[in-house]
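Structure first, sequence second, as always.
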């Protein structure tokens, strides 16, 4: 979509410096498998409404649901309306919903029901004429990983994932987790690539849709201020934290078989590490960015001494936000003898010239004091301080902190003189907050990612090789942890004492997030 250079046709109401010209996809359908689940109800359907509210959906856009329900199109539309009203981030407007109304289709059936998939195939063919989608459809697998192979084989059997047979484009969106180890990830990747061409597979990591994560690239490569210091000569260490104040909720079945490392460290945190540590791409092209991320992941060295360089933890009964909460073993449906970790901290290194000798400390946990995800680059202290020792007692490392959530922004921490008659120095901070600096609100991650799927933009989606490298790093840890008991920490604390000791042995401390 472009603006004409003809002065007679230029929109007089548009600021020529405003680069937010909407990218609108071609007419298409979004097919959601597992449309009755929490992800579809709380994230996907509200994101579709928000995109419509922002004017980013094409005329004739259709959302089709597939699930084991005895619903008609109208029933699905009513459920979608309720979900959008409860969870959408943009204001509710009846005129926006009126544009979506009538564009809902529902097909009921089980994943192993050939007849149901045949009906879905016929439904998409009918939409060519009724809505002009020209065979364009994206299939969103919002389903348990165990069901991926069944659905993919049904798409293959019916030819629904075949671009040539459909007459348009067909794309498949796969939610994490991408396997449960390297072997299963490779098997899943092989299956997906057999059914759909590699260019049409979109592996969702919703963290990459967050505005502040994308801003890592802007911060690093659009400014000359940071790049000269972004290396082992000036950087002391890097800390990446993903803290949650909640427990496991109703996910006991999934979480107890997975644990913190498989749940978020193999995917979310490895992607954040890659963005922080990657080299500058030659162009801002999806293939170039992914190539640089892959180089970093291949250079990551797992801990050689797992006992000294990793910590697993499991929360006990405690207090979070003034409320008493149960321990992990007291959570509903958790086995009383479970050794699953709810906290993991790992020390990693990167084997390349830029980062040689710089430790990357990564931690993730549940029932911590507050919800926060951030990346902190801690710089080395000045080699010489011409001040009296007592004047710099409160002076720490310079830090650049990128807050991913919830208070999105960037914080720079450095030393300054305290006003007064003494030369006393201490750390101060300068903050940039998205909510204060920009009038345009940031889109929710799923909005951006769904839009990119419909546009065919793969920049924010990890490919098969990145997924497999993440498992290459995590699998040795899981093997070493097998049969061991995690350390414990009380809910409301920042993890086990052993995690603090891991950094203390190297003269460092965790940043207070």
């Amino acid at each position: 979509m472009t603006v004409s250079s003809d002065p007679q046709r230029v929109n007089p109401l548009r600021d020529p410096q405003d680069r937010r010209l909407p990218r609108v996809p071609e007419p298409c359908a979004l097919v959601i498998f597992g449309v009755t689940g929490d992800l579809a109800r709380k994230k996907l359907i509200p994101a579709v409404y928000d995109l419509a509210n922002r004017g980013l959906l094409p005329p004739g856009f259709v959302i089709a649901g597939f699930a084991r329900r005895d619903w008609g199109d109208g029933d699905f539309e009513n459920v979608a309306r309720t979900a959008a009203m409860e969870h959408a981030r943009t204001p509710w407007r009846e005129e926006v919903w009126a544009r979506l109304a009538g564009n809902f289709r529902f097909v009921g059936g089980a994943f192993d029901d050939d007849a149901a998939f045949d009906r879905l195939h016929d439904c998409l063919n009918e939409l060519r004429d009724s809505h002009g989608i020209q065979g364009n459809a994206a299939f969103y697998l919002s389903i348990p990983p165990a069901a991926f192979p069944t659905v993919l084989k049904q798409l293959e059997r019916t030819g629904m994932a075949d671009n040539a047979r459909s007459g348009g484009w067909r794309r498949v969106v796969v939610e994490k987790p991408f396997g449960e180890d390297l072997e299963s990830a490779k098997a899943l990747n092989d299956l997906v690539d057999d059914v759909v061409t590699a260019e049409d597979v979109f592996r969702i990591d919703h963290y990459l849709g967050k505005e502040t994560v994308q801003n890592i690239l802007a911060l690093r490569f659009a400014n000359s201020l940071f790049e000269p210091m972004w290396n082992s000569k000036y950087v002391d260490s890097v800390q990446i934290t993903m803290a949650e104040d909640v427990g496991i909720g109703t996910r006991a079945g999934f979480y107890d078989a997975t644990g913190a490392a498989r749940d978020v460290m193999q995917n979310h945190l490895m992607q954040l590490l890659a963005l922080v540590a990657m080299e500058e791409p030659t162009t801002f092209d999806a293939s170039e960015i992914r190539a640089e991320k892959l180089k970093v992941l291949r250079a990551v060295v797992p801990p050689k001494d797992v006992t000294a360089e990793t910590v697993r933890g499991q929360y006990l009964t405690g207090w979070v936000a003034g409320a008493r909460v149960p321990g992990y073993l007291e959570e509903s449906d958790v086995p009383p003898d479970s050794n699953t970790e709810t906290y993991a901290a790992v020390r990693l290194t990167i084997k390349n010239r830029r980062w040689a000798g710089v430790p990357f400390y990564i931690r993730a946990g549940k029932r911590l004091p507050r919800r926060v995800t951030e990346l902190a680059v801690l710089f080395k202290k000045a080699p010489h301080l011409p001040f009296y020792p007592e004047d710099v007692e409160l002076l720490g490392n310079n830090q650049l902190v990128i807050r991913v959530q919830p208070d999105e922004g960037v914080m720079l921490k450095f030393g300054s003189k305290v006003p007064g008659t003494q030369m006393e120095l201490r750390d101060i901070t300068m903050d940039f907050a998205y909510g204060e600096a920009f009038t345009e609100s940031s889109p929710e991650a799923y909005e951006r990612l769904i839009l990119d799927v419909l546009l065919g933009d793969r920049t924010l989606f990890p490919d098969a090789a990145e997924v497999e490298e993440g498992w290459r790093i995590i699998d040795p840890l899981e093997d070493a942890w097998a049969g061991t008991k995690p350390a414990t920490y009380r809910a409301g604390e920042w993890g086990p004492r052993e995690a603090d000791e891991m950094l203390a042995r190297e003269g460092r401390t965790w940043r207070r997030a």
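Margin note: Residues 259-277 form the longest helix (19 residues).
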